[in-house]
Amino acid sequence: MQSERFQDRVAVVTGASRGIGLAIATQIVAEGGRVCLTARKPEALADAVAALGGPDRAIFVAGRADDAEHRAAAIAATVDAFGRIDVLVNNTGINPVAGPVASVDPSALLKTFGVNVGAALAWTQQACEAGLGSRPGAAVVNIASVAGLRPSPPIGIYGASKAALIHVTAELALELAPRIRVNAVAPAVVKTVFAAALYEGREAQVSADYPLGRLGVPEDIAAAVAFLASDDAAWITGQTLTIDGGLLLKGTFG
To answer: Which candidate, 68, 63, 59, places its Cα nearest to that of 12?
Structure first.
């Protein structure tokens, strides 16, 4: 029997045209919620909205997560369409650079932290200004990474940004309590376009490092996010849930 944990609730999910973000939006809609999807490409977002049931269940606003005007437009469109915001999922992330952190280009460093940390914080601020937390059950879930929990060459800058996001999650949880719960999830490698370079052409080899014997799929992350965003997690805040198929039990990253 399908749960209705998000009945009469409205979520904004960033980076939701595909992969983990779309899986999260799909889970929320399947459980009675309505969603605003954001990402850069309007065509992919339009397809996603159609798959979710159209404008009665979902809308989209295209733009860059680190663009203040885009954030304002998405938040305003959500309130205009659905009257409220109850849940924010900060899923957008970038990884434009790989290699030693000691030689990273400063512009790439600033861009990575600007999107992965700064934009997540800005989305949260703007959602609060638009009424997130004015009703019971408000929640923010940030999508971090196991790369933020351990040294993670060759994606150390990405990992550092996710470590910062994990810390910001705890800070926000303290500041926004008791009106808004703020948690994060830290996935290992999930089979998405974003992570394809980490496993493509060698999935069996990479999967062998995981005690559960497989890589993650977007639905694995969506189920955990839906739990943290719902009243089932009503006494949980400031936490980061590792979703890694047991990978970190081995004491290594990948």
So the answer is: 59
Q: Of 38, 123, 36, nearest to 83 (Cα)?
A: 36
Helix (H, G, I), strand (E, B) or coil at 13: strand
> Does 222 map to a domain?
yes
What b-and-e string marks burial along 140-153, b requiring 16 or more CB atoms within 10 Å of the CB? bbbbbbbbbbeebe
Query: Residue 158 catalytic?
Result: yes
pLDDT in tens, 115-162: 999 999 999 999 999 999 999 999 999 999 999 999 999 999 999 999
Indicate the number of domains in the chain.
1
Q: Which domain, by its residues, includes 223?
A: 10-190+217-240
Catalytic residue among 60, 82, 158, 253: 158
In this structure, the strands spanning 58-62 and 34-39 are: parallel
